[in-house]
Amino acid sequence: MGQKQDELLKRIQKLIRQNQDLYGKNEKLQKAITELTEQAEMMKLRLKEARKGVKEGRTSEPEERIKKYKMATVLFAYITGFKHLTDNESSEVVMDQLDEVLIEFDRILKKYKIHKIKTIGDTYMAAGGIPVKNITNPIDVVMAALEMNIFLNQLRRINGKRYWNLSLGIHTGPVTAAISGKRKITYDIKGDTVNIAHRMQGVGESGKILISVMTYELIKEFFVCDYYGKMPVKYKGDLEMFVVNGIRPEFSMRNKGVMPNALFDTKFKLIQFTDIQELILDRLEDELPQYLYYHNVKHTVDVVTEVELIGWAEGLDDEGILLLKTAALFHDAGHTIDYNEHEYHGTELAKKFLPDYGYSEEQIEKICNIILSTKLPPQPEDIYQEIICDADLDYLGRSDMIPVSNTLYKELHEQDKIGTLNEWNKLQIKFISSHSYFTKTARSLREINKQKQIERIKKLITED
After folding, report:
1. CA 216 to chain centre
2. How many domains does the chain have?
3. CA 291 to CA 408: how far, in whole Å?
4. Both 181 and 329 in a single domain?
5. Residues in contact with 156: Cβ distance below 8 Å, sequence separation at least 6, in sequence order
6. How confident is the model at residue 413 (pLDDT cuts 50, 70, 90)?
7. Which H helix or E strand runs over 418?
8. Is the pTM of this model over 0.90?
9. CATH code for the domain in which residue 110 is found
10. Cβ(296)–Cβ(287) under 8 Å?
11. Hey, what long-range contacts does 91-98 have (CB within 8 A, 24 or more apart)?
12. Read out DSSP for 185-235?
């Protein structure tokens, strides 16, 4: 009996290994298929551009204008109601209303920074995350789809009839764009993401916003969704689909699931912060002077991380964390303009960039006040300013305090703002001895270690 069990176990183990090998081979095959598909799309786009060049009489090679986007959200909207255009008594009125619908759809896309690709007969195609890449494009496109549906539902009846309805398909994934035109630039996108979104629109019912599981995973925190079913996709298996019913009650005005509220806006901006951070850090990387050994990109990232840590520990809400992280991101950005007044210039940059990301005047003013509070000596007036001041000088209580402070010395020394390293260490002793953290969190995390740094620095000082 024991021998049979051993043989059975060996067979099971062998089958498990074989299955694992098959899964591995299948994943490699799927990856290879995806890569080949993308290469084929690229070749098609290049061939199309080349043919266009021949027709236009170009003798030189066409300029390379093909761009790949790792994450875009494609929307296909099928507008039902075209059959009514043949009705003899109402066709002109219906056509005028169709123009009204398309104009409103264009306005909605512009509101959410979604790029209209084209209108193909009664099908409306658009994509979020193009031409400017952003992380929020799945949410943007779903919000736009909801507004489109709401607009049609509220549209006036013609002779007591409702003529226009929508079926929408939305899918998120990589796309390849062929860019053409000089004065008016157009984007022709290709790839599996486009094909899947188009097919989803075809299987959806009128009035339904159908999204793929990929889009669902990126938007489910904000929207009420129901499982819809599966759709077979070549080389990829069955694709799960969901129907978007509206905004979650806690994120909507009067809990009706139609208009987003302030909480929605804050959650959205916390996600959007990734885009702003990438933009500003790239700017710092390119424009900060070479002598900034301390006030560099790493320091900005450290402060952004630290204000969030202290902020949560101090019990701030989501909006408070958002304001702090944004202030931390801009607090040293002014070094790209001027060293001595960098706090002021940081506020000017915040005023320049943040309106494009939907920050209110009140939010921007508060962010600017938080930035200005980091000017030495720190004199914070509220919990937000206390947190950023503690985060900005967090290194004083860290184990790497001395090597970090040496980068600040090097930075000041190269600008002739400080003399010898010995003079710097004496100044450090004086500064640290008089310094106190403002928040309970920073005091508990850093104060004890800060006292140890004083003793370590004292040992480095030599008598004149």
Report:
1. 16
2. 3
3. 10
4. no
5. 97
6. very high
7. none
8. no
9. 3.30.70.1230
10. no
11. 93/158, 94/158, 94/163, 97/155, 97/156, 97/158, 97/163, 97/164, 98/164
12. -EEEEESHHHHHHHHHHHHSPTT-EEEEHHHHHHHTTTEEEEEEEEEEETT
Contact present, 141 and 128 (Cβ < 8 Å): yes
State whether 173 and 271 are in the same domain.
Answer: no
Q: What single DSSP character describes residue 78?
A: E
Q: Which domain holds residue 50?
A: 1-60
Distance separating alpha carbons of residues 362 and 142, to the nearest angstrom: 28
Closest by CA position to 111, among listed 69, 78, 75, 147: 147
For residues 103 and 182, state if they share a domain. yes
In the chain, count H helices and then E strands.
Answer: 15, 8
Kindly tell me the burial class for residue 167, based on how many C-beta atoms sit within 10 Å of its own C-beta (0-12, 13-18, 19 or more): buried
Q: What does the pLDDT read at residue 122?
A: 77
Within a domain: 334? yes
Distance between CA atoms of residues 136 and 112, nearest Å: 10
DSSP 8-class letter at 252: B
231 contacts 237 by C-beta, under 8 angstroms: no
| Residue 267: band (very low, low, confident or very high) from pLDDT cuts 50, 70, 90 | very high
Domain end marker among 9, 32, 60: 60
Residues 271 and 204 in one domain: no
Domain shared by 349 and 228, yes or no: no
Structure tokens that stand for 345 in this block: 């210039």
